[in-house]
Amino acid sequence: MQSVVANIAIGLVTSLLGGGFVWLWERAKRARAVNRRADFFGVRPEETCLVVVGRKHDAPGSPHYRDVRAVVELTLLAGELGCRVSVEPGTFRGSNGDRTEFCVGGPLGEVNARASGHLAAHLPGVVFHPYDGRRRNSVAIEVGGEKYQYEPDAREYAVVAKFTPVESSRPVFLVCGQSSMANLAAIHFLRREFAAVARGLRSTERFCLLIRVSDSATYEHHRAELAKDVSVAAFAR
Known about the structure:
The protein is of the alpha/beta class.
């Protein structure tokens, strides 16, 4: 009888230890995944992230509803990583300081002056051609000698870049698309696929990517993919 009780006790202890080790392993695995995601987007738990959003081109002071949805995606991301969010308009000036900045919106037509400033100061190799409905290059993105045309409802692009200004201790994460659709698609894509994208980068501290969204007339912002890593050309002076 004593041997039976002893065997039962040993079995219980073994089960408890095994369950505890599995729980610890799963917890460590989840923590590593969160840390990798936080590292890619440049945030730290418990910090406040600054989200700067542009306005709709024909509505001063009012962001496009898709840019609002992009801000919601970023807010959800920040919440998943244990961060708070502060939102500012594209007219925001000054350093992001010790706050990771997510800047969303295209640089054309004074839609987002902050994005224009970031491009000029940190991404000299990236050119957004001005809007001109009579020309094929209207709103095209040019980088590394290649032009990426804007084809509404068919093929659109967004520049996604991460860099740290010299006067700041935290990075800027810039999402600068040919349209609000491209902005939303880029953020939605990277929230899901950041791990695969990160594996292909030389560094997650500084990079510049082109995200392509296709067939948006049918699939909205859901059909997005990494078009190209243009980091070398984008940061070249």
